[in-house]
Structure formats: structure tokens, C-alpha cells
């Protein structure tokens, strides 16, 4: 039934197709249809149990590797490592479970939006029923303040205005009618003879027949999209999963080689087994999940200070990879508040309304704006339809106080607005006259005018010239209203449109718009500078969307604008070629929003989607990251999103992106640091036998180094401040390896460097025939990694420029870890456990000096990289990517 174009049929045909009548269904008919169509409710798929969601968190390859490492650690007698790994894995599983459980609440929020009751005609009588009992063919009575209980084709309407903003994105209430519409392919917002489930009646009354209920309604179809649409893995999840697979294979190969090399050298089988297994455990960065979680948690905490609430922790990092921001217009880029911006009277256009003491045309226009409305005071504030409220407030700010004016010119009659006349008239009594003020669509009002009003009084005027002015304003995205008046010596006998609304005197035009938020243009510019493309996707009219987009700097011409009607006619293959050139989509449906997001993702783009309405929810869920509005957003949008802007400020997204990039940078720094350190340990153990040297370290030494160097210094890297150029570079392509931009080269040469200085220290100590040679190797390996942690705090900026005190947690972890190493060397009780000997001060100083060489070596690498001597091809590629975005 949902395929029927109800809006294009006369209501008599609609009733016939539904086998209903103006008096509604009988009770028997309703019972049968309830069995056939089911309840008028959003059906929710069976929810997964918490246990099922929890077990699903352990399917990631990296998690499996860590669990194997935990078992091995317990086997070789290191229960503390086993406990640490299990706690980390369990913590991540709990966080993942909570986030997935929250995501499933999106459809539950949608269910809450349903109207609890409805006024229905059954057996010819009006009765009150639960909205879930409605079936197709039921006739429903609508009044101001009602939530629409199902999708209805209107049969009757009186001044009916409906707020459909959560469904269509249109910022002002929609005027409804009952006549059929010829175009069968109209967007939801243009089907003005239909009202939709969960919309709000803001004015008037009406009667409609149910044409869709439950999951067949527009909002039900959105719920279906929400249930069927799968979330997309974040770039970090994808990269870490790939990294885990490669690392496991590499570790396995290293363990086999070290074990075989030891046996060939004549080492005991048990010792070599424990050594190779210990090395395997050390090579796996079990602190990585903890570092990732802490980095994301710190980023989330920081974003709260910028009014951004993170509902899904990986979203913090995901923002750093965003290449496109698809944003709704109403309430996101604009204020969702109709505002008068321009006035036209006496042949002159102004940006503000003059005070009452101004010339006669402007004074008359101001008085008409103040009096011709149905604004009432509610809780001490003016309340009413948004357009009328905007006109009232503009007049009030200029000094035209309605309450004072009504004392001298009280309203004595009104001809209410209707969709055929497209105008409203109020009549007011003055001392000796009755004045009628008329407002409405320019093409209607102007045709009824016979003269105009200027500074010299009443004069003839050209209708065509004023219509051209109105058209010009409309083309700029304004909603234009015309004002006129007519004076009578007394109240006409017949107060109707035919008598009053003719032979009018034109007063002026008023242009309204939902204006952009003042902070958004700068935020859009910041996005472009950061290599991120903003795209507007709205249910509003193309002209309005284009005007707002041009103001914000999103587009510079209309070639980058596509309407929903045009999009519906474009095949997927052709749209795939066009999608990266379109910057504004107008009059689109929820399904089309989803199609746009998917098309961009298929092109390899990483898409953030912002929105506040029910119509945004499926795209919010599908997007790489969904960002909902917190103040004016619906519960449905918030539940489907990863992040919520608590202040509805688009510029907060830019701050969030900066935080996301910082988080990803710091995770990269940790991986760079820990894998370089692990490579140093592996190469030390692997290469020493080839130089005829004994096994450099015992299993307990390897596990200690792994514990202290991957622990505190690694966690301290999560607090590193952002790089200076963080928002002046292109986003990391989602498919780009985490080892790009020279990281794998850095890991390789630093591993060789640390391995080289460790073996050199070992050879020098053995040549001197000192018994503490193993303690010296142990110390160099540990302390060199600490100096390396200081060096990798920035990928391009010198350590001297960063300063020692710009990251106090890092300084503290460096000193504390160094102190722990000294305790292990110089405490007699620990000497027995760790098989260490106290070092003479001279040898300790030599160890510290040799270890510090890594800091100077990395500084030289930065200097060479900055001058394009090394990694230049990757650097040039990054520059080209950045320039292409601009």
C-alpha cells in the first residue's frame, strides 16, 4: 500500500481505495484490519542480549593475540602479566559492550515519539483510542497541539499548520491543503495534502484518513533503515586489526628463529624456550589497548569542556580521519529561528525597520507587522507560529508595541489565513476609520493593490517592478511576504475576503530567513583549511539551501547544488562520478541522505554526518561518525549518533576534529615508540649469537623491560599536546597504513640502533671481563628506550623546542622509571630476583651516556626529514593531498 501516491489522488478516490468513508470505519472493519495490518507501532527487532554483545568483543584478532600472550605469561611463571593483560582486555570489552548497547536504544527513542492517543471516527461517532489501535481507513480528527498519530491524507482543514521539521528539516511550519497534487514524485515536504506520524499540529484543525500505519509510515520506514543499517568500523579499529594480524605472524617467526639460533649455539632447550616465549610476550604491545582507551577517554574528557559529549569512545579518534562533513542545515548551520532581515518600502530596501516616528510608509509597515498576527502571551513570553513571531519581534524591536497599539487601534474582526488565498487580514478600529491590514504571498497581495504608499503619500506603482523585487529576494533564499492596507469609514456589512481584500494600498515587502549561526562561516573555513569538505544535506528548498551555503562559503555557484528530484533520476554509477563535486543537496529524503553517505564511503571517503531530526537518524548511524545536536535535536538523532553537540554549535566540530587528530597522533607515537623499543630488544637477542656472544638477557629481564618501558612512558604519551600544524594538513586517508610517513623506517633503524649500542656495550663489558656485563646490557636497553620516549614526543618538532616541561606526566614517568631501574640494580633483595649486580658509578655513567645517544640520533632524523632529505616522497604526497583539498 505504501507504493500508492496518495497525495496525487482526490480524497474521494483515497476513501474508495481504502474502503472507508467520511464517517470512518465500523468497529468490525477496524478489528479485521488490525489483524491484517498489525498495530500502529514501530516494531523493534529482537535485541541482542548483553552477554551476546560482550562475547562479540573478543572476536578481534588483536584481542585473541593478547589472550594467547596472557596464557603464555602464566605458563612461564609471570602471573602479574597475565592479570594485567586480562584486566586490559576485559576493560575494553566492557566499554565496547556499553557503546553497542547504547546504539540499540535509537529505535526505542523513535518508538517514544508516537502519539499516545488519537481522536477517531468509529461507527460514525468520535471516540478516543490508543494510537496503536489505528488502522488504514480510520478517519482521525486533528487539533492544534496534537501529535499526528499516523500518516494521513487530509479530508478537511482549517488554517492547518504542521511542524514537520524533525522529519523534513524545514524550519517553518507547513501550510496544508486538501486538493490533489499532480506531481507523483514530490518530496515529503512538498506533499502538502498529507500529514505524517510524529509531526506536530501548530495551528488550526483538520480531518484525515489513515493511509499508512506502523512500519509503513514515513517514520516507520526510517526505523527500518535504522535497524537494517550496519555501523562502519572506525579507521583505528581497522588499522589495529590489520596491525594485530601482521604482528602475530612476525612474533611467531621471531620466536622460532631465536629458539633455533640458541639451540645451534648449544644453549639449554628449556632456557631457549623460556627466552623465545618471553621475547614473544615482550614483542606484543599489550599496553596498546590500554593506551588507546586512555587516549580516547582523555580526548572525550577534553571535548566535554568544549560542549561535545562523546557517546562512543572510538569517535574521538575517528574525527581525526574525517574527509567529509555532511551537515544538516536547519538548527545545525542555521539558528532554526525565522528572522526578518530585509524590508522594502517606498522604493527603498533597508536592513532594519525605522522607529514609529519615521516617514509614513515605514511607520505604516511597522504598524501592520505589529497588528496583523495571532501572537499571544504565554508564560510571560510571546508565543505563536514562527513566521508571525519573527514579524512581531521585528516590529517590537523597532518600537511598535502591539499591546499599546491595540489600545488605540483594537482588532474588531479577522479574515483568517487559508491556503487558497495565501493571505490573512485583520481589521482595526481607529477614532473615525476602520483599517484593514493584509499580509500574504506577494503574487496574491500585489494583484489586489491599486496604489502604493511613499514619502509623498498615496501614489501609483508598478506591480511588475515590486514582483521583480520580491522574486529577487526569493532567489536569495528569503521567504517574502507583502503587506497592504485598506481603509473604511465603518466596518463593512460583510467581513469576507471578496469584500475587504481588494482595492488595496501597498505598504511594503518583508524578507525572512532562518539565518546562519554567526560562528559557522569561520568553522567552515577551518574545515577547508584542514582538508575537510563540508556538504549541506537538507530537506529544505533548493533556493534557501543555496543561499545559506553561499553565505557560509560552502559553494560559490549553483552548479554544485542537487535537488532530491534530480538525485532520484540519477543511476548509482553516474552518481558515483558526481558525488565528490556536489556540495549542497536540497529537498532530499532520509533514504537519499543514506545514499549520499554510502556513495562517499564507496569512494574511500571518511564521512561525518551531523543532524538533529528523525530524518537524519539512519544517515547518522551509517556515517563513519554521527554527530547529533543536543539542544534542539531529537532523542532519535542522539541515540543514533556517536557524539552530541551540547550547544548545537557547528564550530564545536572543528575543535573536536583537532582533538581527534591529536588523539590519533598520540596513539601513533605510542606505537612508534613501543615497536621501536621492542625491535631493539628482539635484534639484541637475535644478533648477539651471530657475533659469538652469549644470550644477552634472561627472560625476567625481558619482561621487566617490557613492563616499565611500555607502561608509564607509553601512557604519558597520551597526554602529549597537539602538534602546531595539526589543522593545516590533510586528513589521513582511511585506508592509509598506520606505519605511513616514515614510521616503519623509524622503527627499523631505531631498533637496529638500540640493538647496536646494546651489543656494543655487551662486547665492551665482556672484553673487560666484568661479571656485571649482563646488568650493563639490561640497563642500556631499558634507559635507551626512556630517552627514545622523550624523542618521539613530536614527529617533526625538535625536543629542544618542545621543552622538557610541556608534558609533565612524561617527565615524571621518565624519572620514576629510571628510579625503578636503579632500585633493581642497587637493592640486594632485588639483585637475587632479577639476577643483577650493582654497577660502579663510572660504568653506570657510561651506560646512561650510551643510552642518551638515541635522543640525538632521532633529533638528526627530524632535521633531515624537515629538509626533505629522507621520507621526502611521503612528505610530498601529503602536501599534494592537502593542496588538492584547497
Instruction: Return the CATH architecture of the largest domain.
Output: Up-down Bundle
What percent of residues are in strands? Answer: 15-25%
Largest sheet features: 9 strands, mixed
What form results from the Cα inertia axes? elongated
Q: What name goes with the CATH superfamily of the largest domain?
A: Calcium-transporting ATPase, transmembrane domain
Q: Give the strand tally.
A: 26
- Report the mean per-residue pLDDT as an integer: 83
- Secondary-structure class: alpha+beta
Count of domain modules: 5
Pick out the low-confidence regions. Answer: 110-115, 874-886
Top-tier CATH class of the largest domain: Mainly Alpha
DSSP helical segment count: 35
Helix content: 40-55%
Distance between the termini: 48 Å
CATH fold-level label of the largest domain: Calcium-transporting ATPase, transmembrane domain
Structural key phrases:
about 900 residues; alpha+beta; Calcium-transporting ATPase, transmembrane domain; 9-stranded mixed sheet; 35 helices; 26 strands; about 50% helix; ATP binding; transmembrane
Amino acid at each position: 500500500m505504501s507504493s500508492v501516491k496518495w497525495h496525487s489522488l482526490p480524497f474521494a478516490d483515497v476513501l474508495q481505495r481504502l474502503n472507508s468513508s467520511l464517517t470512518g470505519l465500523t468497529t468490525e472493519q477496524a478489528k479485521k484490519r488490525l489483524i491484517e495490518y498489525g498495530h500502529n507501532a514501530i516494531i523493534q527487532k529482537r535485541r541482542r542480549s548483553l552477554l551476546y554483545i560482550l562475547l562479540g568483543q573478543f572476536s578481534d584478532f588483536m584481542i585473541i593475540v593478547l589472550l594467547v600472550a596472557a596464557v603464555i605469561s602464566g605458563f612461564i611463571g609471570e602471573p602479574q602479566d597475565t592479570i594485567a593483560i586480562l584486566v586490559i582486555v576485559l576493560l575494553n570489552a566492557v566499554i565496547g559492550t556499553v557503546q553497542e548497547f547504547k546504539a540499540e536504544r535509537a529505535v526505542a527513542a523513535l518508538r517514544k515519539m508516537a502519539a499516545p492517543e488519537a481522536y477517531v471516527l468509529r461507527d460514525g461517532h468520535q471516540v478516543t483510542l490508543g494510537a496503536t489501535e489505528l488502522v488504514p481507513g480510520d478517519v482521525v480528527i486533528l487539533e492544534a497541539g496534537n501529535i499526528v498519530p499516523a500518516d494521513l491524507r487530509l479530508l478537511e482543514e482549517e488554517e492547518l499548520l504542521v511542524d514537520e521539521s524533525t522529519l523534513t528539516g524545514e524550519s517553518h511550519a507547513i501550510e496544508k491543503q486538501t486538493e490533489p497534487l499532480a506531481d507523483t514524485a514530490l518530496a515529503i515536504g512538498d506533499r502538502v495534502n498529507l500529514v505524517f506520524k510524529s509531526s506536530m499540529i501548530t495551528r488550526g484543525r483538520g480531518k484525515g484518513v489513515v493511509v499508512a500505519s506502523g512500519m509503513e509510515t514515513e517514520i516507520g520506514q526510517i526505523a527500518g533503515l535504522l535497524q537494517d543499517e550496519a555501523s562502519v568500523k572506525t579507521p583505528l579499529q581497522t588499522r589495529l586489526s590489520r596491525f594485530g594480524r601482521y604482528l602475530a605472524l612476525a612474533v611467531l617467526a621471531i620466536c622460532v628463529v631465536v629458539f633455533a639460533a640458541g639451540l645451534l649455539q648449544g644453549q639449554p632447550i628449556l632456557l631457549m624456550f623460556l627466552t623465545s616465549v618471553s621475547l614473544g610476550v615482550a614483542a606484543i604491545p599489550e599496553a596498546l589497548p590500554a593506551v588507546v582507551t586512555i587516549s580516547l577517554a582523555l580526548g572525550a574528557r577534553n571535548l566535554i569542556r568544549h560542549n561535545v559529549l562523546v557517546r562512543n569512545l572510538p569517535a574521538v579518534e575517528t574525527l581525526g580521519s574525517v574527509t567529509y562533513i555532511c551537515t544538516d542545515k536547519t538548527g545545525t548551520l542555521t539558528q532554526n529561528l525565522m528572522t526578518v532581515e530585509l524590508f522594502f518600502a517606498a522604493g527603498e530596501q533597508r536592513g532594519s525597520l525605522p522607529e514609529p516616528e519615521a516617514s509614513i510608509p515605514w511607520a505604516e509597515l511597522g504598524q501592520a507587522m505589529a497588528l496583523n498576527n495571532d501572537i499571544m502571551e504565554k508564560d510571560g513570553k510571546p508565543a505563536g507560529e514562527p513566521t508571525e513571531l519573527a514579524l512581531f519581534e521585528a516590529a517590537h524591536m523597532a518600537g511598535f508595541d502591539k499591546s499599546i497599539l491595540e489600545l488605540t487601534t483594537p482588532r474588531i474582526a479577522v479574515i483568517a489565513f487559508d491556503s487558497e488565498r495565501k493571505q490573512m487580514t485583520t481589521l482595526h478600529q481607529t477614532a473615525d476609520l476602520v483599517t484593514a491590514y493584509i499580509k500574504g504571498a506577494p503574487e496574491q497581495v500585489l494583484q489586489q493593490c491599486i496604489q502604493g504608499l511613499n514619502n509623498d503619500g498615496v501614489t501609483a506603482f508598478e506591480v511588475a517592478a515590486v514582483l521583480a523585487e520580491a522574486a529577487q529576494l526569493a532567489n536569495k533564499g528569503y521567504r517574502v511576504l507583502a503587506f497592504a492596507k485598506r481603509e473604511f469609514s465603518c466596518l463593512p456589512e460583510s467581513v469576507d475576503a471578496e469584500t475587504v481584500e481588494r482595492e488595496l494600498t501597498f505598504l511594503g515587502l518583508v524578507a525572512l530567513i532562518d539565518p546562519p549561526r554567526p560562528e559557522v562561516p569561520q568553522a567552515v573555513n577551518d574545515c577547508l583549511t584542514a582538508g575537510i569538505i563540508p556538504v549541506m544535506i537538507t530537506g529544505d528548498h533548493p533556493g534557501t539551501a543555496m543561499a545559506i551555503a553561499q553565505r557560509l562559503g560552502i559553494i560559490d555557484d549553483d552548479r554544485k547544488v542537487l535537488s532530491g528530484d534530480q538525485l532520484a533520476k540519477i543511476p548509482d554509477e553516474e552518481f558515483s562520478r558526481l558525488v565528490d563535486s556536489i556540495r549542497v543537496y536540497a529537498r532530499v529524503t532520509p533514504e537519499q541522505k543514506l545514499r549520499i553517505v554510502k556513495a562517499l564511503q564507496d569512494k574511500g571517503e571518511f564521512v561525518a554526518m551531523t543532524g538533529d531530526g528523525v530524518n537524519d537518524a539512519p544517515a547518522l548511524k551509517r556515517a563513519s561518525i554521527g554527530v547529533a545536536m543536543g539542544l534542539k535535536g531529537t532523542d532519535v538523532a542522539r541515540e543514533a549518533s556517536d557524539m552530541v553537540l551540547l550547544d548545537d554549535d557547528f564550530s564545536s566540530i572543528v575543535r573536536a576534529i583537532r582533538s581527534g587528530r591529536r588523539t590519533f597522533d598520540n596513539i601513533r607515537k605510542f606505537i612508534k615508540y613501543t615497536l621501536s623499543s621492542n625491535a631493539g630488544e628482539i635484534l639484541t637477542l637475535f644478533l648477539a649469537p651471530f657475533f659469538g656472544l652469549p644470550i644477552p638477557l634472561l627472560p625476567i629481564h625481558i619482561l621487566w623491560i617490557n613492563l616499565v618501558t611500555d607502561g608509564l612512558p607509553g601512557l604519558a604519551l597520551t597526554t602529549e599536546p597537539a602538534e602546531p600544524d595539526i589543522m593545516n594538513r590533510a586528513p589521513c586517508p582511511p585506508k592509509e597504513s598506520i606505519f605511513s610517513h616514515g614510521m616503519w623506517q623509524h622503527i627499523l633503524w631505531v631498533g637496529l640502533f638500540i640493538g647496536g649500542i646494546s651489543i656494543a656495550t655487551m662486547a665492551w663489558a665482556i672484553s673487560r671481563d666484568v661479571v656485571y656485563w649482563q646488568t650493563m646490557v639490561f640497563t642500556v636497553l631499558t634507559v635507551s628506550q626512556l630517552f627514545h620516549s622523550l624523542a618521539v614526543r613530536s614527529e617533526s618538532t625538535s625536543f629542544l623546542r618542545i621543552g622538557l616541561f610541556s608534558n609533565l606526566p612524561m617527565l615524571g614517568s621518565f624519572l620514576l622509571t629510571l628510579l625503578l631501574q636503579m632500585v633493581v640494580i642497587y637493592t640486594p633483595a632485588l639483585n637475587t630476583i632479577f639476577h643483577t649486580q650493582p654497577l660502579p658509578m663510572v660504568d653506570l655513567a657510561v651506560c646512561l651516556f650510551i643510552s642518551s645517544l638515541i635522543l640525538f640520533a632521532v633529533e638528526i632524523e627530524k632535521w633531515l626529514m624537515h629538509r626533505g632529505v629522507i621520507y621526502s616522497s611521503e612528505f610530498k604526497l601529503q602536501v599534494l593531498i592537502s593542496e588538492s583539498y584547497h
